[in-house]
């Protein structure tokens, strides 16, 4: 049976990139792609009007041929769709929905209001870059195709965060050796998973779409366009929005080199300030977010963390 992926855009249009995407990698894996009518449409800085973007998602949910909904990428305006979505449709059809970055606003809202599992993981762009990582596809397949209940997360051997699209030889990626996950604070944790882009989570603060975080294991990622001062700002804001001590654990995705961390302005310096006094496991430099590759994280699933034995296990559960 051919699995059909419904490709949608909640914010930025596919028309904003130079080349025409043909989804070659996903098609080589046996998938068929069904595009929303607004995917390649551009109105101002978004992929169509609010209603066009909402209707595109609703149409994919109702379409019996569509098995999985995947965002092509993010942007900055997914949050404006949230009041207009019919959450009963998500609950009725309960199809896997996956993406990252700004799309996490949709993922969090659907998880909370439709009470279904959603997935922070690869988007269409993840497989549309040169030299797509099999690591990304393998974890996507384990979670959404094979529907494995338990998944042990291992670190990738290599990663890439190069701006290949700015080079003349843009047909390949510059890959670096991955040093693997790092532990800021050791500990043990079990809990329900919430996974999101950091600044997108903060955009939802004070709204009915903001997730319940008490007791949760929080996975956070941030985009490459934010420098160290802004990342520090976002983490500080988060610590003022919620009581971080009520979390079970914090897992942070790898930041891109464009963010500008250095020995004199490091991640650890930010964590020392923001996480001061917290007695819960904190892991960072994990394989998810705005660098490649990434593993897939079920929002509403469960995670087990044992930093002493280097264990990160994710379990998806049907809500």
So what's the oligomer here?
single chain
Question: What is the mean predicted local confidence, pLDDT?
Answer: 96
Name given to the CATH architecture of the largest domain:
3-Layer(bba) Sandwich
> Which regions have little confidence, pLDDT < 50, spanning 5+ residues?
none
Q: Count up the domains.
A: 2
What's the gyration radius in Å?
A: 18 Å
What is the strand tally? 16
Q: Please report the first level of CATH classification, the CATH class of the largest domain.
A: Alpha Beta
| Structural classification | alpha/beta
Write the element-wise H/E pattern from the N-terminal end onward.
EHEHEHEHEHHEEEEEHEHEHEEEE
Describe this structure in words.
By secondary structure, the chain is an alpha/beta fold. It has 2 domains: 4-152, Rossmann fold, CATH 3.40.50; 158-315, LD-carboxypeptidase A C-terminal domain-like (Glucose Oxidase, domain 1, 3-Layer(bba) Sandwich), CATH 3.50.30.60. 25% of the residues lie in helices and 21% in strands. It has helices spanning 24-28, 50-62, 87-93, 104-113, 124-128, 134-145, 198-203, 228-241, 267-274, and strands at 4-8, 32-35, 68-71, 97-99, 118-120, 150-152, 158-159, 176-177, 182-185, 188-197, 217-221, 249-253, 282-286, 297-299, 302-306, 311-315. Strand 11 (217-221), helix 8 and strand 12 (249-253) form a beta-alpha-beta unit. The longest helix has 14 residues, at 228-241. The chain starts with a strand and ends with a strand.
């Amino acid at each position: 049976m051919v699995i059909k992926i419904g490709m949608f855009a909640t914010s930025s249009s596919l028309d904003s990139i130079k080349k025409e995407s043909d989804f070659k990698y996903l098609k080589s894996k046996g998938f068929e792609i069904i595009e929303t009518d607004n995917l390649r449409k551009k109105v101002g800085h978004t992929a169509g009007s609010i209603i066009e973007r909402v209707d595109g998602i609703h149409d994919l949910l109702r379409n019996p041929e569509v098995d999985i909904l995947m965002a092509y990428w993010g942007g900055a305006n997914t949050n404006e769709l949230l009041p207009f979505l019919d959450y009963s449709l998500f609950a009725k059809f309960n199809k896997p929905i996956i993406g990252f970055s700004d799309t996490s606003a949709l993922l969090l809202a659907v998880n909370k209001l439709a009470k279904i599992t959603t997935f922070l993981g690869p988007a269409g762009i993840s497989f549309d870059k040169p030299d797509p990582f099999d690591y990304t596809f393998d974890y996507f397949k384990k979670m959404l195709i094979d529907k494995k209940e338990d998944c042990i997360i291992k670190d990738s051997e290599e990663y890439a965060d190069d701006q290949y699209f700015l080079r003349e030889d843009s047909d390949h990626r510059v890959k670096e050796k991955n040093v693997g996950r790092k532990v800021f604070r050791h500990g043990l944790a079990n809990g329900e998973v919430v996974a999101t882009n950091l600044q997108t989570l903060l955009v939802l603060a004070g709204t009915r779409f903001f997730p319940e975080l008490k007791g949760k294991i929080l996975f956070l990622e941030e985009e490459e366009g934010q420098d160290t001062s802004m990342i520090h700002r976002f983490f500080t804001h988060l610590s003022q929005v919620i009581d971080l001590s009520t979390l079970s654990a914090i897992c942070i995705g790898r930041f891109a080199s464009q963010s500008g961390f250095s020995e004199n302005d490091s991640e650890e310096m930010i964590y020392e300030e923001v996480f001061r006094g917290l007695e819960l496991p904190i892991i960072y430099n994990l394989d998810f977010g705005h660098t490649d590759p990434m593993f897939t994280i079920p929002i509403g699933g469960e995670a087990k963390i044992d930093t002493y034995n280097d264990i990160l296990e994710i379990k998806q559960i049907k809500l």
